[in-house]
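Thread: DUF58 domain-containing protein, structure

OP (GT): Posting the sequence first so everyone is looking at the same thing. Length is 294 residues per the record. Can we get the structure tokens written out before standup tomorrow? I want them in the notebook alongside the other entries.
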Amino acid sequence: MLSAELLRQVRRLHLYARRLAQGQLGGAYHTAFKGAGLIFEEVREYQPGDDVRAIDWNVTARMGRPYIKRFTEERETTVLLVVDVSASLGFGSTGRTKRQAAAEVAALLALCAAVNNDRVGAVLGTTEVERFVTPSKGPRHLQRLLRDVLAYEPLQKGTNLAVLLQFVLRTQRRRAIVILMSDFLTEDYEHAFLQVARRHDLIAICLADPYELECPQWGLVQLEDSEGGEQLLVDTADADVRRSFAAQVTQHREVLRRLAAQAGVDVLTLSPADRYVQSLVRYLEQRRRRGRSQ
């Protein structure tokens, strides 16, 4: 049951995201993600300026004058938001956590999909799939999806991206746009990542907090593993300690970079402090210029 305050926050973000989805962000989304193909619309008489390659020679022969076939873009596609809701995303040094950033970006993309009449669904997971919203359309479906994405409280703390990606492979038989959102501070997801990239149009959004690479010099600090619960007293004034933390994060990021390069997958790195809309618009416009589509 959502609290009254949380409901108000969800509604505010819903309205804000809808305005953005109907503006520049929505336009960038529409041109970046092409439809599934062309569908037949009608046969009509040829008019000056029409493409002669569209002439229907069978109808032309029967009618004694040229007719063409008209097609329209099949705009509808399926967008699946796969959101890591594990405890490590609860970290945030900028007044907003990685989890909040992931939820807000997911909401923006869901609204863009809905405005473009695409089916949109979501997978929310930790060490297991905790919530699955089957891709669909319609206002009631969208409202449910947004509430889940923005307000869901996970049952587990850990991360297993391989489980989430394998779930995508089992449930999504047709090619879809799969947007995977995580901090990618985990291991052993490489094989499933490559499998999904082969079958679907996979995009990775990496949520990264600035303090993960540049730990402040706070002296002795009691740290707790948000997923495992282990506690450790560390001296953040020690340069070797800070370098060690940064090296671990860098190693995880390098695994993602290498995988993405191998599979031809786009990686968009966002900080909770970022202005998401501008970052998303820039990415979508770059994607359009490269001609990436389903």
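GT: Both are above now. Quick notes for whoever picks this up: Residues 95 and 192 are 33 Å apart (CA to CA). The chain has nine helices and ten strands.
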